[in-house]
């Protein structure tokens, strides 16, 4: 399956909306796009996984690597998803305690909150 990715600016974050499956074949595309954003100076990223049907260990590895890289430059990586099948994968691997996880992009970016 093909991976779709669309980036946009929202409330001080770059939101990368992803659709499809993140697996051994598509994870390199995701890594390339996230590293491109970081290379362009983006340090606050929200990865919207709401339209992702599947993620395997290679996809989880990409996200963990990006998180490490962003922490090294005082950046943030926030994930958005609410599908139980993805939540279960993050719980089983213990990554739910590593990543900041939100149910909506607005919640992840703090949009609509008073500042």
UniProtKB/TrEMBL annotation:
<dbReference type="InterPro" id="IPR003658">
    <property type="entry name" value="Anti-sigma_ant"/>
</dbReference>
<comment type="similarity">
    <text>Belongs to the anti-sigma-factor antagonist family.</text>
</comment>
<dbReference type="Pfam" id="PF01740">
    <property type="entry name" value="STAS"/>
</dbReference>
<dbReference type="InterPro" id="IPR002645">
    <property type="entry name" value="STAS_dom"/>
</dbReference>
<protein>
    <recommendedName>
        <fullName>Anti-sigma factor antagonist</fullName>
    </recommendedName>
</protein>
<feature type="domain" description="STAS">
    <location>
        <begin position="3"/>
        <end position="112"/>
    </location>
</feature>
<dbReference type="InterPro" id="IPR036513">
    <property type="entry name" value="STAS_dom_sf"/>
</dbReference>
């Amino acid at each position: 399956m093909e991976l779709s990715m669309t980036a946009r600016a929202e409330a001080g974050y770059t939101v990368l909306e992803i659709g499809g499956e993140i697996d051994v074949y598509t994870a390199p595309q995701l890594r390339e796009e996230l590293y491109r954003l970081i290379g362009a100076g983006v340090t606050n990223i929200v990865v919207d996984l709401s339209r992702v049907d599947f993620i395997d260990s290679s996809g989880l590895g990409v996200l963990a690597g990006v998180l490490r890289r962003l922490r090294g430059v005082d950046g943030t990586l926030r994930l958005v998803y609410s599908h139980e099948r993805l939540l279960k994968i993050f719980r089983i691997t213990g990554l739910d305690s590593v990543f900041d996880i939100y149910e909506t992009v607005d919640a992840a970016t703090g949009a609509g909150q008073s500042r």
